[in-house]
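Customer ticket, subject: "Can you confirm the structure for DUF1398 domain-containing protein?"

Message body: Hello, I'm evaluating your service for our small team and ran a test protein. I'd like someone to confirm that this is what the system normally returns, since I don't have a reference to compare against.
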Amino acid sequence: MLDIKAMQMAINQEKNAGGFADLMKQFMMLGVTQYDYLVSDGIYRFSDGDVTADFQMNGVPKTVSEQSSAEKITAAVRSAQAGQISFETFCDLAGQAGVSYWTSDLTAKRVSYYDARGKVLLSEPIPGL
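Agent reply: Thanks for trying us out. I re-ran your input and got the following:
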């Protein structure tokens, strides 16, 4: 069973987008196997393999460009990994890059960013996991 209060606490503790790997570690300890973020809705989708649940939490809906750009999302990810931007700024940049959603597969320890047509713009191991 997903512990939503514990997940909310973990999200609230993230100081900037550079804390992504630590946040994923906390989600893993809470039994989360997959975490998606739907950019245009500002919705978190969590799964533990049996149950999937959507929550707003601190998510803010963002406009998603119709033009997708692997280069733009790669630059945004690198800025986030360096701790240079907030989660909300990262979501803005992801939307500008045409990212409709991203999926963090915590079993495979991989995050993938998709455009509205389902095309993978970037897929890489989650650093630090």
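A couple of notes from the result: The chain has a mean pLDDT of 92. The chain has one domain: 4-125. Feel free to reply with more questions.
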